[in-house]
Amino acid sequence: MFSLKRCEHEGCDTYAFNGGRWCYHHSPDKTKIKEYVIRNFVSGPAVRDISITAADFREMDIAHGLKISGVNLAFCVFDTCTFSETLIRSSFFDGCLFINCTFRGIDARYSAFATSTFKSCVINDSTVIHSNFMGIETEDCDFSSNDFYYSNFSLSRLLDTNLEDCNLKRTSFRSAITKNVSFRYSNPEEAYLRKEDS
Amino acid sequence: MRIMPHFSAEGLSNVYLIIDEERNGIIIDPAHIDKELMELITLSCRDITAVLITHKHESHTAGLGTLMKIYNPRIYAYDDMVNGFRTESLADGDTVQIGRLSVKALHVPGHSLDSLAYLIDTAVFTGDTLHSGSIASTNSFVERALLIRSIEEKIMTLPPSTLLYPGHGTISKLGVEKMLNQDLFQFESETGAASLQAFS
After folding, report:
1. How far is A62 from chain B (nearest CA, A)?
2. Along the 198 residues of chain A, how does pLDDT read in single tens digits?
3. Residue A34 within any structural domain of the chain
4. 3-state SS of B49-109?
5. CA trace torsion A183, A187, A192, A198 (10° rounding)
6. ipTM of the complex
7. What CATH code is carried by the domain that includes residue A136?
8. What is the count of residue pairs from A and B with beta carbons less than 8 Å apart?
9. Which of B1, B40, B130, B176 to mutate to test the interface with A (most CBs of A within 10 A)?
């Protein structure tokens, strides 16, 4: 679990990096912190217990089978990053921007991606259960062949996004806006969709 | 501190295992003690020193008896008895030190009269009060108003970066709930602030 100590900068509500004095944004060593995190992402085997918010990560090929747990990566930008066989547990990716990212064969549980934006992203052959996608925006995405059991997509805005051949049992799409979304071979009848929302 | 969520398929409830720096374990809402949870406890901590009950409904307490056969934790709850076990009763605002962790109880009635949320550091465990995107069910409009008022006063006043660990559903942050929790918005728009004043 990342340190729950807050940044000492006046008025900053962000969690400090690794229990230090400052969050990433207010740290005097931003470059060093980012290099450290990228090194961990790329070489593995695990990224645990860190909080780095509003950082940008570009063209990262995340280590195969990387274990990410107890991290806070809220408001980060991931541009052209590849996650393969990644294991994600109890982690926060809220408010992130994912562009041209690929998640293949990942296993994500008890994690939050709420209010994030996914643009031209692929999530395939993955287990993404009990995770929070509330208020996300997607555009031109392929989220097919995944298990989204008990995940929450309420208030999301899904445009040109495929959710084909997915397990949607107990998945919530309450008040979600969908446009050009395909649920082919999936089970939306077992998802939570209020009549007035569909 | 480490927070390890566990999903109980019976009752679809969340059980949380919290571990301090000395590997003392706290269980929040022992919904159902299954093999996976026992393995998690055995691998992660040396003992279960406390059980925190958010409210007495079976889907959050059914595993208490099993847990008490294996460990000898103190039980904390709003009421002084849960499933036949004596508890240390907590009232609104009470703070207890459990191992290295300070735990603050917040009384949030509405779903049930004995509902407590627990604030540990900057993480709030809300049981059946506030869920991500919704609030818990209530039996009447009055109880719903009471629950929303309690949530607004005791929970939503915490900083937006506070981590939310509900009794059902997915984890979140209070900042996200302030933006997107439909039940809180819907109630406001249906009633206006004026009707909530009636309960003050």
Report:
1. 24
2. 888 889 999 999 899 998 889 999 999 999 999 999 999 999 989 999 999 999 999 999 999 999 999 999 999 999 999 999 999 999 999 999 999 999 999 999 999 999 999 999 999 999 999 999 999 999 999 999 999 999 999 999 999 999 999 999 999 999 999 999 999 999 999 998 754 444
3. no
4. EEEECCCCCHHHHCCHHHHHHHCCCEEEECCCEECCEECEECCCCCEEEECCEEEEEEECC
5. 40
6. 0.94
7. 2.160.20.80
8. 88
9. B176
The boundaries of the domain holding residue A177 are 46-193
Kindly list the residues from chain A whose CB atom is less than 8 angstroms away from the CB atom of residue B3.
1, 70, 90
Cα-Cα-Cα-Cα torsion A184, A186, A189, A195, nearest 10 degrees, comes to -50
Q: Which residues in B lie closer than 8 A to residue A154 (C-beta atoms)?
A: 133, 180, 182
Q: With an 8 Å Cβ cutoff, is B9 touching chain A?
A: no
Q: CB B132 to CB A134 under 8 A?
A: yes
